[in-house]
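Lab meeting, item 3. Inverse folding demo.
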Protein backbone atom coordinates (compact mmCIF):
# COMPACT_ATOMS: atom_id res chain seq x y z
CA UNK A 1 0.00 0.00 0.00
CA UNK A 2 1.21 3.46 -0.82
CA UNK A 3 1.28 5.68 2.24
CA UNK A 4 1.36 8.97 0.37
CA UNK A 5 -1.53 11.06 -0.88
CA UNK A 6 -2.28 10.69 -4.57
CA UNK A 7 -2.20 13.46 -7.14
CA UNK A 8 -5.94 13.15 -7.74
CA UNK A 9 -7.18 13.98 -11.26
CA UNK A 10 -9.57 16.87 -11.81
CA UNK A 11 -12.88 15.58 -10.41
CA UNK A 12 -15.13 17.44 -12.81
CA UNK A 13 -17.00 15.60 -15.56
CA UNK A 14 -15.15 15.31 -18.87
CA UNK A 15 -17.50 15.94 -21.79
CA UNK A 16 -16.02 16.34 -25.24
CA UNK A 17 -12.67 17.32 -23.78
CA UNK A 18 -14.20 20.07 -21.60
CA UNK A 19 -14.28 19.90 -17.80
CA UNK A 20 -17.88 20.35 -16.65
CA UNK A 21 -19.43 20.74 -13.21
CA UNK A 22 -22.22 18.43 -12.10
CA UNK A 23 -25.44 19.16 -10.24
CA UNK A 24 -23.91 17.64 -7.09
CA UNK A 25 -20.60 16.46 -5.65
CA UNK A 26 -19.56 13.44 -3.64
CA UNK A 27 -16.48 12.30 -1.77
CA UNK A 28 -14.24 9.45 -2.94
CA UNK A 29 -13.06 7.50 0.08
CA UNK A 30 -10.03 5.30 0.60
CA UNK A 31 -11.63 2.03 1.83
CA UNK A 32 -8.46 1.00 3.66
CA UNK A 33 -7.73 4.19 5.55
CA UNK A 34 -11.33 5.48 5.71
CA UNK A 35 -10.13 8.89 4.60
CA UNK A 36 -11.40 11.17 1.84
CA UNK A 37 -9.20 11.17 -1.26
CA UNK A 38 -10.97 13.96 -3.13
CA UNK A 39 -14.41 15.14 -4.21
CA UNK A 40 -15.89 14.64 -7.66
CA UNK A 41 -18.80 16.03 -9.65
CA UNK A 42 -21.69 13.66 -10.32
CA UNK A 43 -23.44 13.45 -13.70
CA UNK A 44 -27.15 13.32 -14.47
CA UNK A 45 -29.22 12.54 -17.58
CA UNK A 46 -28.52 15.95 -19.14
CA UNK A 47 -24.79 15.25 -19.02
CA UNK A 48 -25.38 11.87 -20.66
CA UNK A 49 -27.22 13.59 -23.53
CA UNK A 50 -24.42 16.13 -23.92
CA UNK A 51 -21.67 13.48 -23.94
CA UNK A 52 -23.51 11.31 -26.46
CA UNK A 53 -24.12 14.33 -28.72
CA UNK A 54 -20.40 15.12 -28.67
CA UNK A 55 -19.54 11.49 -29.41
CA UNK A 56 -21.96 11.37 -32.34
CA UNK A 57 -20.35 14.41 -33.89
CA UNK A 58 -16.86 12.96 -33.41
CA UNK A 59 -17.53 9.39 -34.48
CA UNK A 60 -17.40 9.86 -38.28
CA UNK A 61 -13.89 11.30 -37.99
CA UNK A 62 -12.78 8.36 -35.83
CA UNK A 63 -14.29 5.90 -38.30
CA UNK A 64 -12.49 7.66 -41.17
CA UNK A 65 -9.09 7.35 -39.47
CA UNK A 66 -6.91 4.86 -41.35
CA UNK A 67 -6.06 1.77 -39.36
CA UNK A 68 -2.39 2.71 -39.17
CA UNK A 69 -3.31 5.98 -37.44
CA UNK A 70 -5.53 4.26 -34.88
CA UNK A 71 -2.87 1.65 -34.13
CA UNK A 72 -0.25 4.37 -33.70
CA UNK A 73 -2.48 6.18 -31.19
CA UNK A 74 -3.11 2.98 -29.24
CA UNK A 75 0.59 2.16 -29.03
CA UNK A 76 1.43 5.73 -28.01
CA UNK A 77 -1.17 5.47 -25.23
CA UNK A 78 0.44 2.23 -24.03
CA UNK A 79 3.79 4.04 -23.84
CA UNK A 80 2.20 6.86 -21.83
CA UNK A 81 0.77 4.32 -19.38
CA UNK A 82 4.26 2.95 -18.82
CA UNK A 83 5.52 6.47 -18.09
CA UNK A 84 2.68 7.14 -15.60
CA UNK A 85 2.64 3.67 -14.06
CA UNK A 86 3.26 4.70 -10.47
CA UNK A 87 0.71 7.53 -10.48
CA UNK A 88 -2.03 5.36 -11.94
CA UNK A 89 -1.20 2.43 -9.65
CA UNK A 90 -1.34 4.67 -6.59
CA UNK A 91 -4.75 5.97 -7.67
CA UNK A 92 -6.06 2.42 -8.14
CA UNK A 93 -4.74 1.40 -4.73
CA UNK A 94 -6.20 4.36 -2.87
CA UNK A 95 -9.65 3.96 -4.46
CA UNK A 96 -10.04 0.21 -4.10
CA UNK A 97 -7.78 -0.82 -1.19
CA UNK A 98 -5.87 -3.04 -3.61
CA UNK A 99 -2.23 -3.77 -2.75
CA UNK A 100 0.12 -1.51 -4.68
CA UNK A 101 1.92 -4.48 -6.28
CA UNK A 102 -1.44 -5.70 -7.64
CA UNK A 103 -2.32 -2.20 -8.80
CA UNK A 104 0.94 -2.03 -10.76
CA UNK A 105 0.07 -5.36 -12.37
CA UNK A 106 -3.29 -3.93 -13.38
CA UNK A 107 -1.64 -0.90 -14.97
CA UNK A 108 0.64 -3.20 -16.96
CA UNK A 109 -2.38 -5.19 -18.13
CA UNK A 110 -4.01 -1.95 -19.23
CA UNK A 111 -1.02 -1.22 -21.46
CA UNK A 112 -1.22 -4.78 -22.80
CA UNK A 113 -4.93 -4.29 -23.57
CA UNK A 114 -4.03 -1.32 -25.77
CA UNK A 115 -1.35 -3.25 -27.63
CA UNK A 116 -3.69 -6.23 -28.06
CA UNK A 117 -6.41 -3.98 -29.52
CA UNK A 118 -3.84 -2.46 -31.85
CA UNK A 119 -2.75 -5.89 -33.09
CA UNK A 120 -6.34 -7.10 -33.45
CA UNK A 121 -7.47 -4.21 -35.63
CA UNK A 122 -4.52 -4.76 -37.97
CA UNK A 123 -5.68 -8.35 -38.47
CA UNK A 124 -9.39 -7.55 -38.87
CA UNK A 125 -10.66 -8.80 -42.20
CA UNK A 126 -13.96 -9.01 -44.01
CA UNK A 127 -15.27 -12.11 -45.77
CA UNK A 128 -16.01 -13.26 -49.29
CA UNK A 129 -19.23 -15.25 -49.47
CA UNK A 130 -19.98 -17.74 -52.28
CA UNK A 131 -23.16 -16.29 -53.76
CA UNK A 132 -23.71 -19.38 -55.91
CA UNK A 133 -24.76 -21.33 -52.83
CA UNK A 134 -28.30 -20.42 -53.92
CA UNK A 135 -29.87 -20.61 -57.39
CA UNK A 136 -29.36 -17.39 -59.32
CA UNK A 137 -26.08 -16.61 -57.59
CA UNK A 138 -23.89 -18.09 -60.28
CA UNK A 139 -20.99 -15.83 -61.18
CA UNK A 140 -21.67 -13.44 -58.28
CA UNK A 141 -19.54 -12.66 -55.25
CA UNK A 142 -20.76 -11.14 -51.97
CA UNK A 143 -18.48 -9.15 -49.67
CA UNK A 144 -18.88 -8.80 -45.91
CA UNK A 145 -17.27 -5.64 -44.56
CA UNK A 146 -16.79 -4.71 -40.90
CA UNK A 147 -18.00 -1.21 -40.02
CA UNK A 148 -17.88 0.77 -36.76
CA UNK A 149 -21.03 0.64 -34.64
CA UNK A 150 -21.04 4.35 -33.83
CA UNK A 151 -21.19 5.51 -30.20
CA UNK A 152 -20.34 2.92 -27.53
CA UNK A 153 -21.42 3.17 -23.88
CA UNK A 154 -18.80 1.66 -21.57
CA UNK A 155 -19.99 0.93 -18.01
CA UNK A 156 -17.23 -0.55 -15.86
CA UNK A 157 -16.85 -2.07 -12.36
CA UNK A 158 -14.68 -1.23 -9.37
CA UNK A 159 -12.50 -4.32 -8.92
CA UNK A 160 -10.10 -3.54 -11.78
CA UNK A 161 -11.14 0.02 -12.60
CA UNK A 162 -8.31 0.82 -14.99
CA UNK A 163 -7.84 -2.36 -16.98
CA UNK A 164 -11.52 -3.26 -17.34
CA UNK A 165 -12.25 0.24 -18.60
CA UNK A 166 -9.31 -0.05 -21.00
CA UNK A 167 -10.70 -3.34 -22.34
CA UNK A 168 -13.78 -1.46 -23.57
CA UNK A 169 -12.23 1.85 -24.58
CA UNK A 170 -9.28 0.36 -26.47
CA UNK A 171 -11.38 -2.13 -28.44
CA UNK A 172 -14.09 0.41 -29.26
CA UNK A 173 -11.62 3.05 -30.49
CA UNK A 174 -9.58 0.47 -32.42
CA UNK A 175 -12.72 -0.45 -34.36
CA UNK A 176 -13.52 3.21 -35.15
CA UNK A 177 -16.10 4.05 -32.49
CA UNK A 178 -16.51 6.97 -30.09
CA UNK A 179 -17.02 6.16 -26.40
CA UNK A 180 -18.86 7.52 -23.37
CA UNK A 181 -17.31 5.93 -20.29
CA UNK A 182 -19.10 5.63 -16.96
CA UNK A 183 -16.53 4.29 -14.51
CA UNK A 184 -17.37 2.70 -11.19
CA UNK A 185 -18.83 5.19 -8.71
CA UNK A 186 -16.40 3.75 -6.14
CA UNK A 187 -13.32 4.19 -8.31
CA UNK A 188 -13.92 6.86 -10.97
CA UNK A 189 -10.57 8.65 -10.81
CA UNK A 190 -8.75 6.11 -12.96
CA UNK A 191 -11.40 6.65 -15.65
CA UNK A 192 -10.32 10.27 -15.86
CA UNK A 193 -6.65 9.28 -15.91
CA UNK A 194 -7.40 6.85 -18.73
CA UNK A 195 -9.15 9.53 -20.78
CA UNK A 196 -6.37 12.06 -20.21
CA UNK A 197 -3.70 9.71 -21.52
CA UNK A 198 -5.85 8.58 -24.46
CA UNK A 199 -6.42 12.21 -25.43
CA UNK A 200 -2.70 12.91 -25.03
CA UNK A 201 -1.99 9.98 -27.36
CA UNK A 202 -4.21 11.42 -30.09
CA UNK A 203 -7.79 10.29 -29.48
CA UNK A 204 -10.01 13.27 -30.40
CA UNK A 205 -11.34 14.80 -27.15
CA UNK A 206 -14.94 14.67 -28.36
CA UNK A 207 -14.60 10.93 -29.02
CA UNK A 208 -14.05 9.94 -25.38
CA UNK A 209 -16.07 11.44 -22.53
CA UNK A 210 -16.12 10.33 -18.88
CA UNK A 211 -19.15 10.68 -16.62
CA UNK A 212 -18.89 9.83 -12.95
CA UNK A 213 -22.16 8.76 -11.38
CA UNK A 214 -24.27 5.95 -10.05
CA UNK A 215 -26.85 3.54 -11.41
CA UNK A 216 -29.03 6.37 -12.71
CA UNK A 217 -26.24 7.49 -15.06
CA UNK A 218 -25.58 3.94 -16.16
CA UNK A 219 -29.29 3.45 -16.77
CA UNK A 220 -29.52 6.64 -18.82
CA UNK A 221 -26.64 5.44 -20.98
CA UNK A 222 -28.12 1.95 -21.37
CA UNK A 223 -31.51 3.37 -22.45
CA UNK A 224 -30.08 6.01 -24.76
CA UNK A 225 -30.97 5.47 -28.42
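The presenter then showed the designed sequence:
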Amino acid sequence: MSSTAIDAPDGRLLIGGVRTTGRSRRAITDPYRRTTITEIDVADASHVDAAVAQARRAQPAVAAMPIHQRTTILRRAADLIAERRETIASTISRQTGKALRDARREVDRGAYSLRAASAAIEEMRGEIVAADAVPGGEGLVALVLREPLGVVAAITPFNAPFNLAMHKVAAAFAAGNAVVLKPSSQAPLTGYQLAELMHAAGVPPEALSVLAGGADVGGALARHP
